[in-house]
Amino acid sequence: MFYGIDPLYWILMAPVLVLSLFASLRVKSAFKKYSNIKNRSGLTGADVAREILRRNGLSHVEVRKADGFLSDHYDPAKQIVKLSPDVYDSPSVAAVGIAAHETGHAVQHALNYSPLALRNMMVPLASIGSNFAWIIIIAGFFLSMMGLVKIGIILFSAVVVFQLITLPVEFNASARAKQMLQDYNIVSSGDMKGVGSVLNAAAMTYVAAAASAIVTLLYFLIRSGLLGGGDD
Predict the structure, then answer these.
(1) Within a domain: 113
(2) Which helix (H) or strand (E) is 83 found in, with range?
(3) Among candidates 184, 213, 210, 182, which has minimal Cα distance to 195?
(4) Tally of domains in the chain
(5) Which of 34, 43, 135, 141 would be a feasible disulfide site paired with 94, CB 3.0-4.6 Å?
(6) Is 51 a catalytic site residue?
(7) What is the DSSP string of 124-173?
(8) Quick one: CA torsion of 85, 86, 88, 92, rounded to 10 degrees?
(9) Residue 229 lies in a domain
């Protein structure tokens, strides 16, 4: 009757699952296509990241190779741009787009971009909510303790807020990436089409993640009777 075995959950989640699948396939397709096209400058992802950092007075930020496929990210605590092997070593259009995006986060950090600062502050609470909220909610239902259910819902709300804050952070990083690649004359106008395709596809995965969190919260609210009246 609850969560993973509750038909209501899957009815609500079905459109999100379709969106998530579409986003995942689109990312893989765009990355595969533009990984086989060399960018005009011939610079690798690592080269582009370092060049953008240099141009923004951020040469102290390190660029390192990460493990895993599309594991690219910026670590604000250590000020390190970590690029997956397929991005770090590649001079492809896809690689420079992703490298520029992750470096865009480093630029955001240096400029004290408020949504990024807020997201970083939310990380501990969102982590707790993601790992423990559903356990607390299920325990509250089984023990008939609505107070416990409400605590779990509040914790999970932090996950939703985190995912919503992530959207402007990611969209802004992509916008910065596109602008910097053009301003620094790293890519051609033809390359920009590919960069846009890769980054726009990646943006859909964040939209899907936010939608998933929102729908899950909606489910919790319905089943707890806090929305729609009654918990059948």
Answers:
(1) yes
(2) strand 80-83
(3) 182
(4) 1
(5) 34
(6) no
(7) HHHHHHHHHHHHHHHHHHHTT-HHHHHHHHHHHHHHHHHHHHHHHHHHHH
(8) 170
(9) no
Residues forming beta bridges with residue 38, ordered by sequence position = 92
How high is the mean pLDDT in each 10-residue block of the chain (232 residues)? 75 96 96 96 97 97 94 95 97 97 98 96 94 93 93 96 97 97 93 96 96 96 83 46
Cβ(223)–Cβ(6) under 8 Å?
Answer: yes
Of 23, 15, 14, nearest to 203 by C-alpha is 23
Is 32 a domain residue? yes
| pLDDT of res. 231 | 47
Contact 166, 130 (CB under 8 A): no
Nearest to 152 by CA among 168, 166, 131, 171: 131
Of 51, 62, 102, 170, catalytic: 102
